Each structure stands twice: as structure tokens, then as C-alpha cells.
């Protein structure tokens, strides 16, 4: 089953909630995993269920990166906040890098996320 990770920095959490609502039908056909607070917010504010890892700053990004290495992740929507320094920047960079190493599609903007999700819809034959 297609497995997608959903991650957002605090300033981008409203945007990922909006995206999750817009793509709820499609996302409901996927296994969803997310960092702690992002996963909690999406689960509480949509009809989707997101498997929650640790919060980003305490290792959630690293946990999702490990799933990328294991070949378990088909795509990542990671709405980053480029205007705010993050204490766990090394973890964030490591996640971006390991997606490149393993050729896992990762969208860091809302527009990129639309292209990624529409692409997964086409690939899986599910209406987006
Ligand atoms: O910091 C994050 C990603 O780097 C997101 O973590 P949370 O979803 O726990 O807020």
C-alpha cells in the first residue's frame, strides 16, 4: 500500500491541514505517517488517521528518514518554514538528503505537494 509521510513546521501546519482536507479522499487510500504534532493535528482535524512518530525536534524526522532508507515511504509532503530557524536543522537536512539518495519524492511547498499528490493519484489510479 502507498505510504506517505506528512510533516509541517508550526507556521505551515494550517497549510498542511488544508491540503489534507483537499486531498482527503486520495489520502484516505494511503497509509499515512507523520511527525508527532503534525500527525496529531491532521488526525484531530480531518477524517484521516496518521501514524504518529516522535515530534520533529526530538527525532521524528530521523524516524521517517529511517523508513525512507528501509524503502517504506513512497512520498513525503514536508511543508518547511524557511523563515524560522529550527533547533533540529541537522535532522531536517538529513531527511532531505536521504530522500535524494533513495530517490523518494519530497515536496516542501504547497505547490510541490499538489504536484506530488496528483502524481501519486495518477500512479495509483485513484482520483485526487
Ligand atoms: O519539526 C517538525 C519537522 O522538522 C515537525 O514536527 P511536529 O509535527 O512534531 O511539529
Explain what this protein looks like in three dimensions.
- This protein is α/β, with parallel strands linked by helices and about 130 residues long.
- The chain has one domain: Methylglyoxal synthase-like domain (Rossmann fold, 3-Layer(aba) Sandwich).
- It is built from six helices and five strands.
- Strands 3-2-1-4-5 form a five-stranded parallel sheet, with helices on both faces.
- Helix 5 links the parallel strand 4 and strand 5.
- Helix 1 packs across helix 3 and helix 4 runs parallel beside helix 5.
- The chain is globular and about 40 Å long.
- The structure holds 1,3-dihydroxyacetonephosphate.
- The site of 1,3-dihydroxyacetonephosphate has 13 residues, from helix 3 and helix 4.
- 1,3-dihydroxyacetonephosphate binds next to helix 3 and helix 4.
Q: Mean of residue pLDDT?
A: 97
State the helicity in percent bands. 40-55%
Bound molecules: 1,3-dihydroxyacetonephosphate
The general outline is globular
List the uncertain runs: none
Distance between the termini: 16 Å
Number of helices: 6
Features of the shown structure:
alpha/beta; 5 strands; binds 1,3-dihydroxyacetonephosphate; 128 residues; five-stranded parallel β-sheet; single chain
Please outline what is shown here.
The protein has 128 residues and is of the alpha/beta class. Helix 1 packs across helix 3 (36-45) and helix 4 packs parallel to helix 5. It has helices at 13-22, 24-27, 36-45, 60-69, 89-101, 110-124; strands at 3-8, 31-34, 51-52, 75-79, 106-107.
Amino acid at each position: 500500500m502507498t505510504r506517505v509521510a506528512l510533516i509541517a513546521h508550526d507556521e505551515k501546519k494550517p497549510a498542511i491541514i488544508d491540503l489534507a482536507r483537499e486531498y482527503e479522499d486520495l489520502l484516505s487510500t494511503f497509509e499515512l505517517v507523520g511527525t508527532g504534532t503534525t500527525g496529531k493535528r491532521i488526525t484531530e482535524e480531518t477524517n484521516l488517521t496518521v501514524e504518529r512518530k516522535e515530534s520533529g525536534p526530538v527525532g521524528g524526522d530521523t524516524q521517517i528518514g529511517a523508513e525512507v532508507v528501509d524503502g517504506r515511504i513512497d512520498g513525503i509532503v514536508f511543508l518547511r518554514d524557511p523563515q524560522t530557524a529550527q533547533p533540529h536543522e541537522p535532522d531536517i537536512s538529513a531527511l532531505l538528503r536521504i530522500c535524494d539518495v533513495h530517490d523518494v519524492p519530497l515536496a516542501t511547498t504547497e505547490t510541490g505537494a499538489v504536484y506530488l499528490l496528483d502524481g501519486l493519484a495518477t500512479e495509483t489510479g485513484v482520483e485526487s
